[in-house]
Design a protein that fits this description.
- By secondary structure, the chain is α/β, with parallel strands linked by helices.
- Helices cover about 40% and strands about 15% of the residues.
- It is built from eleven helices and twelve strands.
- Strands 3-2-1-4-5-6-10 form a seven-stranded parallel β-sheet, sandwiched between helices.
- α4 packs parallel to α5.
Amino acid sequence: MSTYLVTGACGFIGANYTRLLAELDPGSTVVAVDYLGFAANQANLDGLDVPLEVVDIADYDAVAGLYERHRPDVVVNFAAESHNDRAIVSSDQFVRSNVVGVHALLAATRRHPATKLVHVSTIEVYGELPPGQEAFTEGSALNAKTPYSAAKAAGDQLVRAFMHTYPDLDLAMTHCANNYGPFQLPEKLIPLAITNVLRGRKVPIYGDGLQRRDWLHVVDHCRAIQAVVDRPPAPIPEEAATRPELLPIYDISARHEVTNLEIVERILAALGEGEVEHVPDRPNHDRRYLIDPAKIETELGWKPTVEFDEGLEATVRWYVDHRQWWEDVLAAKGDLQFDWSREPAAGP
C-alpha cells in the first residue's frame, strides 16, 4: 500500500488527481498538502476522507516535517502559482512557489531517497511555437516568455539538475497542455466564460482571440500522471547530458488545438446565450503552443480518452449544475476578470 503526498491538492488539477486516486490506486493512503493561497479552494476536496496538511512547500523545514511524519512513497507536486495575468502584475509569489518550493521538495526527497517525486509542469516553459514547427517535444529548449512560465522553467531546471546530479533519486517531470474540467477557478478562459454567461455578463476575449491552445481534459491529465507514477525506475543514461528527451520527462497532450475564440463560441452555443467582448490583450501573450505526447504514448501506453467536444459539453454542464460552488468562490475571492486597459502595475 502506497502513501501519497499530493501538494497543491486544493487547486484545480491537484483536487481532480486526489479525487481519482481512490480509483487509480485503491488502498493507497493519500495526504493532501496545500498552503491555501489565492487559487486554492478547500471545498474542492469536500466528500473525501483525506487529511489536509496546511503547509507552504517553500518552507523547507515544514516540508521536511511532512516527509518525517508521513514517510511518503510518492510525492506528486501540483503546487504552483499558475495564472499568467497575476504574475504580470506581481511575480514574487510565483517565484516563491514555483522555484523555491520545488527546491524544497527536491531537497527533502534527497534526504528521503525512498520517495518517488513527480513534478508537474506546463507546456508554457517552451515559450511560443515558431512558424513551421509542428510541436514541442521533451528535447525542446526551455524558452519561457512570461514571469509565470519563467518561474516554472526555473523549477524545471532544478528538477533536471537533480536528475543529473543525484541519479539514484526516483524523479520524474511532466509538461501538460492547457487543462479544462470541473473545479477550475473561474479566472481561466473556460470557467470564466461559462460563469460570465450564467451571470448575464459578456465574455472577454483578449485581442483578436486567435491565440491557439492545445487542450487536455483534466481526467486524462491525471491518468497520465499516474502512468508516470507507476512507471518502473530506470537509470539516467549518459547521453541525457545533452539530450534532455532521455530524462524521465513526459509531455502530455490530446493533440487538440483550438483558438480561444472558437472555445468561447462553443460555450455560447452550448449555453444558448451570451455575447463576446474583445478586450485589450495582456502583455507578451503567446500566440501558439503545442506539445507532442508520442513519448508517453509509446513508453507508458497512455492515450487520451476524453473527446474534446464531449469533454467541453460535460464541463459546461458541471458549472451549470454546481452554481453554488463557483458563486462561493467568487464571493470569497472577488471579481476574477482582468482588464488590461486599467490594471495597475504592482511589485515586486
